[in-house]
Amino acid sequence: MREDTMEFEGQVALVTGGSRGIGRAIALKLAAAGCDIALNYRSATREAEQVAERIAGLGRRVELFQGDVSDPDVPQAVFTGVRGSFGRLDVLVNNAGITRDELLVNQSLKDIEEVLATNLVAPMLTVQAAAPLMLRRRYGRIVNISSSAASKPGRGQSNYAAAKGGLEAFTKAMAVELASRGILVNAVAPGVINTEMTDTIRSHGEEEIMRRLLVKSYAEPETIADAVAYLASPRNTYTTGEVLHVDGGLKMA
Ligand code: NAP
User: Fold this and answer.
1) For ligand 1, atom 39, which residue shows the shortest CA distance?
2) Do 247 and 191 contact (CB within 8 A), yes or no?
3) Of 249, 250, 251, 244, whose CA–CA distance to 227 is shortest?
4) Domains recognised in the chain with CATH numbers
5) For the segment 210-253, what is each residue's pLDDT rounded down to a tens digit?
6) Where is the Ketoreductase domain (predicted)?
7) In angstroms, what is the span from residue 222 Cα to ligand 1's centroid?
8) Contact indicator for 14, 79 with CB cutoff of 8 Å
9) Which of 69, 202, 204, 229 has the fewest CB atoms within 10 Å, measured from its CB?
10) What pLDDT, on the 0 to 100 scale, is given for residue 3?
11) CA geometry: angle 45, 47, 51, nearest 5 deg
12) Does the Cβ of 95 fall within 6 Å of ligand 1?
């Protein structure tokens, strides 16, 4: 479906973790509004190709960039590929993320390091790689996908909460560094969204989650994509360093 407004026409967005879930919805939303898409994913090649087919069907250009962003060499390699293919980058969405929920006393160092590497270090390295190109063009919109767990962690989420809390602090720090060159940096903090990531907690913790939600339902990935699209768009001229909670009121409970 094409959007009424093609506000991203002529722009290029890099979306990390775009083969499934929220990243997939963000890539499709931006493409429907006129954006060409560089789509990163880790291993789900078939799913990524299906997203690419949908984007091409919308009349947009799309390139796939496979790579595990938790490997510190990958963010720069992905960005080099994007610059080579498209020559510009207007929008960066740091969406790739993982959980390894476990009480801290039972967490391995690997659980801690992988969660921090994917959810926090990878977005930092991706911004570091992409910012010079945005700085030269004096335009950019960066949206980092955080989580309500950063401000209201559940049991067993210490590694994830620490990573996403760090990502929110990083978002603010980048807003300070980049605003003078026309680059706005924000975060979106989803609550419980209907994706594979939440299969287990939705099936085992439904009663507890529904008790904490003011809006008594899970959201679909498209709801998060709507929020991201606004912050990433040229319509956003004055919001930076903000964390937009899209969580059905979860954080209030
Ligand atoms: P998902 O359904 O598990 O999908 C994760 C996506 O990220 C997949 O495309 C996956 O690629 C990719 N990915 C994971 N690790 C990667 C890596 N190291 N390098 C490159 N790509 C990687 O997750 P989701 O629910 O859509 O979550 C997306 C973001 O929203 C994450 O940052 C998550 O923390 C955040 N979030 C989600 C919820 C929720 O309720 N779902 C709530 C709060 C925040 P492959 O398919 O190739 O594995």
Assistant:
1) 193
2) yes
3) 244
4) 3-245 (3.40.50.720)
5) 999 999 999 999 999 999 999 999 999 999 999 999 999 996 76
6) 11-182
7) 14
8) yes
9) 204
10) 56
11) 110
12) yes
What's the 42 CA to ligand 1 centre distance in angstroms?
A: 10
- Distance (Å, rounded) from C-alpha 112 to C-alpha 102? 10
Structure tokens of 168? 């929110």
Evaluated on CA atoms 49, 226, 246, 140, the torsion sign reads positive
Tokens of 185: 């940096």
Is 196 near ligand 1, meaning CB less than 6 Å away?
Answer: yes
Q: Give the CA angle between residues 189, 195, 200 to the nearest 5°.
A: 100
pTM of the predicted protein model: 0.98
Q: Whose CA is nearest to atom 33 of ligand 1?
A: 97
Give me the pLDDT at residue 1, please. Answer: 52
Q: Which residues are catalytic?
A: 160
Q: What is the pLDDT of residues 67-80, one digit of tens each?
A: 999 999 999 999 99
